[in-house]
Amino acid sequence: MNKPTLIIANKNYSSWSLRPYMAMAQFGIPFDEKLIPFGEPEFGKAVRRHSKAGLVPVLKHKGLVIWDSLAIMEYLAETWPKKQMWPKNKAASAIARAISAEMHSGFKALRGVCPMNLRRSPKPITVNDALLKDVARFEYIVAECRKDYSTGGPFLIGKFSLADAMFTPLVTRLETYAFTVKPTTLAYMNAIIKTTAFQSWKAAALKEKWIVPEDEVD
Ligand SMILES: N[C@@H](CCC(=O)N[C@@H](CS)C(=O)NCC(=O)O)C(=O)O
Predict the structure, then answer these.
(1) Separation of CA 131 and ligand 1 centre (Å)
(2) CA-CA distance, 42 to 49, in Å (whole number)?
(3) pTM over 0.85
(4) Where does the pLDDT of residue 86 fall: very low under 50, low under 70, confident under 90, or very high at 90 and above?
(5) What's the CA angle centered on 119, arms 203 and 8, to 5 degrees?
(6) Are strands 32-35 and 64-67 parallel, antiparallel or unpaired?
(7) C-alpha–C-alpha distance, residues 176 and 121, integer Å
(8) What SS3 class is residue 158?
(9) What pLDDT score does 39 carry?
(10) Which of 183, 201, 172, 46 minimizes the C-alpha distance to 111?
């Protein structure tokens, strides 16, 4: 099987790029990586050479171009079914998909006010109601998932799944902006942070030299 290529932006800042990287790295899918740095004048043009949507991530595989993180997740799950990237159990899989879709379209306050920036030293910011509502919703999701699915492992549905890949950037935001969270949430965050996939992404992010204004990243 030809190796797919994942097109991403800076590992320090690109939260959407991190999601499919987490999935592919954590599930052991070999892939090539092409990084197009944000903030360079040619960014948009360089991305549009691969996908007319002009956004990263983009996955290229066997002549197909798949843009959008959630569509990439579905493609990976269908192409490598033996990896069981969504939970096998139908009810668990439905929950994993629902929370992944909610992540994809929601948590706007956290995404807007707390951009992913892995090089930023953890420090709190002034919070507002919208931010606290997003954090509370995430904590509720973690608590419910852990209550129902804690037997298979430390992740949302027990074993690592695509839902965890979707939530990884949010976990980094809570850490970077030093939110106070409940022990169950913290335990989940630590499980994500300890994954080999996240550790390898972060090590590369810390070596990057690009500095991009935070209002230009998502
Ligand atoms: N819904 C898209 C969002 C992708 C997205 O917003 N990507 C950002 C980088 S993390 C981007 O390419 N921004 C460049 C721009 O807005 O020009 C997904 O799920 O992949």
Answers:
(1) 21
(2) 11
(3) yes
(4) very high
(5) 65
(6) unpaired
(7) 7
(8) strand
(9) 80
(10) 172
The CATH class of 5-83 is alpha beta
What are the domain boundaries of the chain?
5-83, 90-199
Q: What is the mean pLDDT of residues 112-133?
A: 96
> What are the residues whose beta carbons fall under 8 Å from the beta carbon of 52, sequence distance 6 or more?
none
Residue 172 Cα to ligand 1 midpoint, Å, equals 17
CA dist 202 and 195 (Å) reads 11
List, chain by chain if needed, residues with CB within 6 Å of any ligand 1 atom. Answer: 9, 14-17, 44, 54-57, 68-70, 104, 218
CATH 1.10.10.920, applies to 90-199: no
- Residue whose CA lies nearest to ligand 1 atom number 18: 68
DSSP per residue over 81-110, as a string?
A: GGG--S-SSHHHHHHHHHHHHHHHH--HHH
Least confident of 9-23, 30-44, 63-77: 30-44
Helix (H, G, I), strand (E, B) or coil at 199: helix
**Each residue of 15-42: pLDDT tens digit?**
999 999 999 999 999 999 999 999 888 9
DSSP string, 115-148: ---TTSPP------HHHHHHHHHHHHHHHHHHHH
